[in-house]
Amino acid sequence: MERIPILKIGDVLLASIQIDLQDRDVLALQEDLAEKICSSGARGVILDISAVDIVDSFIGRMFATIAATSRLFDAETVVVGMRPAVAITLVELGLTLGEVRTALDLEKGLAILAALGDRTDR
Amino acid sequence: MTTGPEPTDNLAALLRAGTGALTRRWIELAAAPLRGRLTVAELERELTELFRALVAAVESGSRDLQSEPYAEVRALLSDMSRHRARSGFTPTETAVGVFTLKQALFELVDRAEIEGDLREVLAFSLLLDALGLLTFETYAKAREEVIDEQAEQLLELTTPVVKVWEGVLAVPLVGTLDSARTQVVMEKLLESLVGSGAEHAIIDITGVLAVDTQVAQHLLKTVMAARLMGAECTISGIRPHIAQTIVGLGIEFGDITTKATLADALRHALTRSGVTISSGRG
What we know:
heterodimer, A: alpha/beta, five-stranded mixed β-sheet, B: Globin-like, Transcription Regulator spoIIAA, 10 helices
């Protein structure tokens, strides 16, 4: 099983998913992220799924679960780089990502987190 | 339709004997309704070839158009009919190409220019009817192909994604929306969002004449999908009676932004992306 690397940039954690996700990968990522947020005190999490072209309902739910978990540590989650086919699949599956923020690419995702950070600092 | 070998051979012999007179008269009759839209030389080449194949098939003894000896006749006739359908001939003008052979034969037999008894002529007549039906079937099929192609082209033509501002895309929809088209719009829009990195999209339905629950459902899905990808989607240009239909059908647009006109939607998108507009004066 491959572990998805979690990178820390400033106070943002970045998980870039480059493999076809299996259910156990997803569970491992959830665990790793929770631990990493807790230990690093990150304020934001970015899930880069620009390389993912197949999703199922389980993975769809993962985004919401990760967002809910990280919110408990006061960290916002942004899912970036979702492909059109993936978006259509998720909509057809009837999944909305709830409170998860989304952005077209990594840069815009970082901008969203920066804007959120500014607001809370003030 | 199967007759004994005896009359079969007679028919073949009859056709072969009358080849010259028959084809000449046939071409004459077939050329008349086409009114010069096809050159006589072209018609002559087609019909002579068809006649030759037909005689060869009849000589085999079979009277079944679906049987092996008729393969060449079928192929020639299909080609001819398809060509006619593509070049805009009417069904009559197409079918007349086959049925005039019957007329030519009847005339010649009537004038006793060629020898033929009733049984042979009837058998040949039945065969020609079958050929006529084949012509028509191919013609209809070719026309359907043309229609399908046009529908596909229309699908491509009528769904442009235009960039109206830095980071703002618009899709002006015109005509009737059905599931297939909304699907194309959805895919094209989402691809363009990725390609251009635009964060706002406007679906303008000013030119749409009718919206039903299914179309509304597709529009909603498009907006949701765009949202999942991190872009905001606005629907604009809902006509008054469409608005009434939407409310009447009980379709919920939820928290999706809808604006009256494309201008309003653009203003909304610009405001959201932090662009301020001021008039040039002052």
